[in-house]
Every structure is written in C-alpha cells, then in structure tokens.
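Subject: Sanity check before I submit

Could someone independently write out the structure tokens for this chain? I want to compare against mine line by line before I put it in a report. The sequence has 328 residues.
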Amino acid sequence: MSTFSAIRIDKADKGTSAAYTDFDEADLMDGDVMVRIAYSTVNYKDGLAITGKSPVVRRFPMIPGIDFSGVVESSTNPSFKPGDSVVMTGWGMGETHLGAYAQKARVKGDWLVPLPPGLSLSDAMTVGTAGFTAMLCLQALEAHGCKPSDGPAIVTGAAGGVGSVAVSLLKKAGWHVIASTGRPEEADYLKAIGADEIIDRKELSEPGRPLGKERWAAGIDTVGSHTLANLIAQTKYAGAVAACGLAQGMDLPSSVAPFILRGVCLLGIDSVMCPKDKRITAWARLARDLDKSALAAMTTHVPFNEVMNVARDIVEGKVRGRVVVDIG
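---
Independent answer below. Compare away.
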C-alpha cells in the first residue's frame, strides 16, 4: 500500500501537535530496508515527544516512536531479506528519523538486529528499549566487577519500564534487589517480579549529604538529579552506579567525595548509539535470561489508537512496567 496509518507530529503556533493520519510511503526517509511494523512500545521519551513537554523531536514532520519489531518487506542490505523478523531501537528513531508509530518504516539495515531465538515479535517489544537499556546497565556493572556477594543492588524508578526489567534481571543474576518507588501501591507487583526490599523514593529524592552510610554495592538509576547523587553517596566502597535516565532532572548535585574516598564509579549508559555487536550480545542474553512470567506480569497491551492516551499517562507517572502497542 502507498499510504498507511501513522502518528504525525508537526510544529504548532505554541509547541507541537500530534495526530493520527495517513502517511505516504514515498515520504519515508532514506534507508535500505523496508519493514512492516508489528509492535512498538510507549517509553517515557515517546511520552515527552507526543505531549511536547520536552524538545525530543528535532525534525518536522515526525513520526514518533523509538522502537519496533516487525518483518522485512524489502531490502537491498545483504544482511536482511524479505520475511526476516527484526528489532529496532535507538539511532534517532522518533527524534531525527521517522519512527515506529506507523505501519511501515524505512531504515538502515545496520540499525536492525535480527530477532533472537526464543523471543516472539511481541516479546521483543515487551523488552523494547527499556529492557535493552536495563541489560546494558547490568552488563556495565558486571564488567566493572560488581557481583551479588558484594552486597545489595538498588533500582530507582523501579515501577517504570527500565526499572521493572532491571529488577527482574538483577534478581535472575543473583542479586538482593532494593526497589525505590514513589508508588507504595506497587509493592506487591515489585516483589512479584524480583524485589526483595521496597523503599520510598523520598529517601533519595531530596538534597542529601556528600557522603552517606554505605547501603548498596551497585545501582541502576533511571531518575538523575538528587536521586542519583544520593545513590552515589550511599554506594559501598569500590561499588558502581549505572545511570540511564533523567526523570527527576539532568542535573547532578553531587561532590567528588564518593569517587575519591570510596572509589565509587558512575557508569553512563547510552542505548541510542550503542554499537551493533553490543546490541546483539545484549539481545541474546535478554532472550536467555528474562523470566517470561515476570515479563508478562509487567506488561500491558494496547491497540495503536490508544498510544496518545498512554503517552500522557507515562509522563504523569501513571504507567506501570511495560506497554506494548499492537500496530496492526
């Protein structure tokens, strides 16, 4: 078909506007692989793009959506052929390159990862950018030398997408997991997917001391700002924190004390421009290590026409776990 359904973001008199529309295939951007999209997800960044609450979109018009799974329709890239199942995350999708909230996408084959054995197209988007990022965090902590025998690991924003998968992955890897959340009603959910302890995010979200009591050996932070500063300040000697989010803010009101007095390390995690070899390794481990029952417990499925409603909810902190979108 030459036209297909999509969400389109345009500049408006004040900010941006988003609406469902028919999009012409001829207006897709350059790429050597055409994919029929099966599933996508709703991530925090997608919520910011659709609501216009942050300048995520840097090209107009834009189709938002930073990740998808689907089937190759046509390809001039030697790595892919029609009928191949693929996964796409990052590389500016939904920001500078027309994204996933559409029935079709044309992308560079070098951006795609073959769907790993053991995952369905739906499973892949239950994982999505959030789960992929969580795995990159875990692998970075392990590469640094952090291990479960060193002490507990903490996850901030634990009821969100990245946080939920991080809790499950850390538990699978043998860690005692502390989950930080501002939603006490999610305690049973967090324990069901692997949390051993629940703490209120208020313990970490206010300005704290440059150096606090040593409480955890490792951390995965999705929040930033004072929360990340407090995480670092309370990390055990030679521990590390993997930082991948900024829900509270981009600032880091910290000091050098934890770094030079305890040898704590801050590990920056970027999933957008991550090299392909690291992507393939991470996705293979996700297919092997993720608990399918925990994955199901943290996932909600919605039809394509509900995306904009969910986008507003996720920015307001009303979404638990992962949201898979059936593009249909």
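---
OP: Matches mine. For the report I'm noting this point. The first strand starts at residue 3 and ends at 11.
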